[in-house]
């Protein structure tokens, strides 16, 4: 009866009504995971479960039993930043910083989906792997809202990391 | 706002108009204007590493021992009286500590409404908070439940049994028009203004346009929900808040709860987006009261639905714009009037005609706004209140006239550029909108636009280009205080209660302070977001950057005087007065003879001091009465519209900004783009759906209130004229709001160019594009 969070095993919360987002924030003080709507509309609560992006506000903590959860706090350690975190700073991919952890977690999983050739609704030719374009990234990141208007910087940051990874 | 205020403001303008320039702030241009230093460099946000790690701690994230959680019950009806409020089941539910209703809420006074005559006030609503059984708007708080966990509080809130005797409500915009009020003033401006007989001139004009434009309600939709963590220690209150008004919130709470101001501390180091919404609303008061009653720290984070219901947005508007022109395209009449919603308990007049008043030269004018009193959550200021939606109307109308006259819309605007403020004759401090137009037309490739609508096509897609101007006034707030503490090791700490919601306040002011004090960037620490620091006013009206800049300049002047006094007769600076030295290279330098100099460290060491500290407020902002001070933008847009489905895609967007000195190009681009993207949302999708029968908002969530998502946002090109304003600190004007202005009109005008369909109602959704009549 435990979840592995950022590599550490944590007992499940007592209250089965607790969402994973609430458990991370209130139970474990991992407040890098944000709540922007609590109804799956904004993506601010995005975390990784076994490497896949998940809206933690629509996931009960107990549903993550026996699985590996990675939050923004688990993407980097010490002074070292994850390449996406570095790129977000370099491209000014945020202003207030509230949607940022969700954007970065989503982008981490999204790049893997893209690398695996998964198509999206803007992919033209479904018989070939989806191309690495700004348009593909925009479509795939559209579940993560930003209100400050850092969209251009976010897409530029992700594209740069994707291109470096592809090179 | 009153007639007395009009008289007062007009008297100040008259007096200041006679006062010689050199006696006023900005009379002598800021010596830092044009100097190449830290200002103007591409410094990245200083708190970037914290934000990308998720380590920036927001208000609803502060961990406290014994913290308990609140949930709210909101009224499902618009007007009425509570007849039954049974809380027994909720009180008996597991973990519940308190159910707060009008019956046991402490008796509190009203929160003073913010406004130009009461700049220290912070209230968005003049209604009582949980004080009686009356329901005044849909979503008003009926009860607060406090429990050990959020889950327990949420559950118990659903057990409260509420019955209401409903009363008739005013919720129909059109039906309220006959009872509309005409206020005497709109912010600091006289409301109704005219010159000549504009209606007659319109009738006699060689060319004219006269149409009605509507904009719906908008929601700020900051991604961070409104949240607080309230904590009492005896008679001292600490509130971790997400607010644009740190010190004013502390003052308001002290007054409301009968505390000394120094016993209230409001902390707000990070705010997850504000845009006008992160002000003082009911939730702060409820959390503070509940925390006192249970003597434990309380966390209250509003649900997204509650943000829509309890925190007002931008009012809907219905605007008439009419323009008459002679055969050469010179405006002979300019009329802008209309209606918006502003109940008497709201602070925000949605000043949609103010921008138009200085935008064009015309031979006659008529301006005026009417307010409708509906039973709604008090509407409030949202990014470029007024100019955002007003520019949609006036800049659509200019495009209509240009089409009717077969004149290029850029050219028509250039023919009507005013030399001085069109209504008052006041000189502009700096205005280069014409430069912005020419720069933008060239950069965008405007000459590729077809003058005929519906002339360019790519398969099923119709292509079009449009343009529109935007403007926004320069505002500098009076009485922002700031402290500079200089230590012997040559480090400076600047402190003010002001705040940052992503604009990069600390970063930009660190750059400024480095130049002002002649210190390297790494010698500067900028602290803010704490009401215990010298009090700064609300961050609004794009005023904060120049307000803080003026305070830094004033504090630096005072520091100079103090340092010269400390330096004494043994110093190479002995005998010099403040006007004879400047702050440079880590110390004071004689302007006439730069070999006479001494570092801050040497001055302090000789005086036997470890540090020196001065606190000062910026000079009163009299420059805004002497000059017409505004920022301008020229927006260009290219769209594709599907001839089959009506789908609208914005493919290119360019904003050219005439906003004074750019303090940090990297962050300025982000800030201006951010405004433009909110303008894009206003054009394409944003609409608070209001049920006029029930008075209830029907789409209170981010799944139904559509803000731009990544796929909606093209690469946006931003540039500027870069001309400093000689009358403002650093030559800068605020850039937080100008970005949104004009964008929706540029897009609607491009849609007309693509399709021949003139859409006068926002947003430009598929149904309207398919249904609209062609030209």
From TrEMBL, chain A:
Top-level taxon of the source organism: Bacteria
Protein name: 2Fe-2S iron-sulfur cluster binding domain-containing protein
An MF annotation (GO) of this entry: oxidoreductase activity, acting on the aldehyde or oxo group of donors
InterPro entries registered for this protein in UniProt: 2Fe-2S-bd (IPR002888), 2Fe-2S-bd_dom_sf (IPR036884), 2Fe-2S_ferredoxin-like_sf (IPR036010), 2Fe-2S_ferredoxin-type (IPR001041), 2Fe2S_fd_BS (IPR006058), Aldehyde_Oxdr_Iron-Sulfur (IPR052914), Beta-grasp_dom_sf (IPR012675)
Pfam family, one: Fer2_2
Phylogenetic placement of the source organism: Bacteria, Pseudomonadati, Pseudomonadota, Alphaproteobacteria, Rhodobacterales
Location of the 2Fe-2S ferredoxin-type domain: 1-75
Keywords assigned by UniProt, alphabetized: 2Fe-2S, Iron, Iron-sulfur, Metal-binding, Oxidoreductase
TrEMBL record, chain B:
GO molecular function: iron ion binding; oxidoreductase activity
Keywords: Molybdenum, Oxidoreductase
Coiled coil: none
Gene3D superfamilies assigned to the protein according to its UniProt record, in alphabetical order: Aldehyde oxidase/xanthine dehydrogenase, a/b hammerhead, Aldehyde oxidase/xanthine dehydrogenase, molybdopterin binding domain
Database matches in SUPFAM superfamilies: CO dehydrogenase molybdoprotein N-domain-like, Molybdenum cofactor-binding domain
Range of residues in the leader sequence: none
UniProt superkingdom: Bacteria
All copies of domain Aldehyde oxidase/xanthine dehydrogenase a/b hammerhead, residue ranges: 53-168
Protein name: Xanthine dehydrogenase family protein molybdopterin-binding subunit
């Amino acid at each position: 009866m435990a979840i592995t969070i950022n590599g550490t095993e944590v007992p499940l919360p007592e209250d089965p009504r607790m969402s994973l987002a609430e458990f991370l924030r209130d139970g474990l003080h991992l407040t890098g995971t944000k709540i922007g709507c609590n109804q799956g509309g904004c993506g601010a609560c995005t975390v990784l479960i076994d490497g896949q992006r998940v809206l933690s506000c629509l996931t009960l903590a107990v549903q993550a039993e026996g699985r590996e959860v990675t939050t923004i706090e688990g993407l980097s350690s010490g002074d070292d930043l994850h390449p996406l975190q570095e790129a977000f700073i370099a491209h000014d991919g945020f202003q207030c910083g509230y949607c940022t952890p969700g954007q970065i977690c989503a982008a981490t999983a999204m790049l893997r989906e893209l690398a695996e050739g998964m198509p999206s609704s803007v992919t033209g030719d479904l018989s070939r792997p989806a191309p690495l374009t700004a348009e593909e990234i925009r479509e795939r990141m559209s579940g993560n809202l930003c209100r400050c208007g850092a969209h251009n910087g976010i897409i530029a940051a992700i594209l740069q990391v994707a291109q470096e990874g592809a090179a | 706002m009153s007639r007395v205020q009009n008289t007062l403001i007009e008297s100040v303008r008259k007096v200041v108009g006679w006062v010689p320039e050199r006696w006023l702030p900005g009379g002598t241009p800021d010596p830092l204007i044009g100097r190449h230093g830290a200002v103007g460099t591409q410094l990245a946000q200083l708190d970037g590493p914290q934000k990308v790690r998720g380590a920036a701690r927001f208000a609803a994230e502060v961990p406290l021992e014994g913290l308990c959680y609140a949930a709210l019950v909101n009224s499902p009806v618009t007007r009425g009286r509570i007849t039954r409020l049974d809380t027994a089941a909720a009180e008996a539910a597991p973990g519940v500590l308190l159910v707060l209703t009008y019956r046991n809420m402490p008796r509190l006074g009203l929160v003073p409404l913010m406004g130009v005559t009461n700049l220290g006030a912070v209230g968005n609503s003049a209604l009582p908070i949980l004080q009686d059984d009356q329901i005044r708007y849909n979503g008003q708080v009926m009860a607060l439940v406090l429990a050990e966990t959020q889950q327990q509080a949420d559950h118990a809130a659903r057990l409260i049994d509420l019955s209401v005797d409903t009363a008739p409500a005013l919720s129909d915009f059109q039906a309220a028009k006959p009872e509309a009020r005409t206020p005497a003033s709109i912010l600091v401006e006289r409301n109704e203004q005219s010159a000549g007989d504009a209606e007659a001139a319109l009738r006699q004009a060689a060319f004219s346009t006269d149409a009605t434009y509507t904009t719906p309600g908008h929601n700020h939709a900051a991604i961070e929900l409104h949240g607080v963590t309230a904590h009492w220690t005896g008679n001292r209150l600490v509130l971790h808040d997400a607010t644009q008004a740190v010190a004013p919130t502390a003052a308001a709470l002290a007054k409301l709860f009968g505390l000394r101001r120094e016993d209230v501390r409001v902390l707000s180091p990070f705010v997850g987006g504000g845009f006008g919404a992160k002000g003082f609303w009911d939730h702060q008061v409820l959390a503070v009261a509940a925390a006192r009653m249970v003597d434990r720290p309380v966390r209250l984070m509003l649900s997204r639905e509650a943000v829509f219901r309890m925190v007002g947005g931008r009012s809907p508007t219905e605007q008439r714009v009419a323009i008459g022109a002679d055969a050469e395209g010179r405006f002979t009449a300019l009329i802008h009037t209309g209606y918006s919603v502003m109940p008497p308990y709201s602070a925000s007049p949605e000043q949609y005609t103010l921008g138009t008043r200085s935008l064009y030269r015309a031979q006659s004018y008529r301006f005026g706004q009417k307010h409708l009193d509906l039973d709604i959550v008090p509407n409030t200021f949202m990014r470029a209140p007024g100019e955002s939606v007003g520019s949609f109307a006036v800049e659509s109308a200019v495009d209509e006239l240009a089409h009717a006259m077969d004149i290029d819309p850029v050219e028509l605007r250039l023919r009507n550029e005013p030399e001085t403020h069109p209504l008052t004759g006041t000189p502009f401090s700096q205005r280069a909108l014409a430069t912005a137009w020419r720069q933008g037309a060239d950069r965008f490739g405007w000459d590729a636009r077809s003058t005929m609508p519906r002339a360019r096509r790519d398969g099923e897609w119709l292509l079009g280009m449009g343009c529109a101007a935007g403007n926004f006034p320069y505002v500098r707030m009076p009485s922002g205080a700031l402290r500079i503490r200089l230590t012997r090791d040559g480090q400076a700490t600047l402190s003010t209660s002001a705040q940052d919601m992503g604009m990069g306040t600390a970063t930009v002011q660190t750059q400024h302070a480095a130049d002002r004090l002649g210190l390297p960037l790494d010698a500067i620490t900028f602290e803010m977001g704490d009401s215990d620091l010298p009090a700064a006013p609300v961050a609004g009206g794009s005023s904060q950057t120049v307000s803080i800049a003026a305070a830094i300049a004033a504090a630096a002047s005072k520091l100079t005087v103090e340092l010269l006094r400390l330096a004494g007769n043994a110093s190479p600076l002995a005998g010099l007065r403040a006007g004879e030295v400047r702050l440079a290279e880590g110390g004071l330098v004689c302007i006439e003879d730069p070999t006479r100099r001494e570092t801050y460290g040497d001055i302090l060491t000789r005086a036997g001091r470890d540090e020196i500290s001065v606190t000062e407020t910026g000079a009163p902002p009299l420059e805004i009465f002497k000059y017409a001070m505004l920022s301008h933008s020229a927006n260009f847009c290219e769209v594709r519209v599907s001839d089959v489905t009506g789908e609208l895609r914005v493919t290119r967007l360019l904003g050219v900004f005439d906003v004074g000195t750019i303090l940090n190009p990297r962050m300025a681009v982000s800030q201006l783009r951010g405004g433009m993207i909110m303008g894009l949302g206003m054009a394409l999708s944003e609409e608070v759906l209001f049920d006029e029968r029930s008075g209830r908002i029907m789409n209170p969530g981010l799944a139904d209130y559509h803000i731009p998502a990544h796929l909606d946002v093209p690469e946006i090109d931003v540039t500027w004229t870069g001309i400093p304003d000689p009358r403002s600190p650093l030559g800068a004007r605020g850039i937080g709001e100008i970005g949104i202005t004009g964008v929706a009109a540029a897009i609607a005008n491009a849609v007309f160019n693509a399709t021949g369909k003139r859409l006068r109602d926002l947003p430009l959704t598929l149904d309207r594009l398919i249904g609209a009549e062609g030209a």
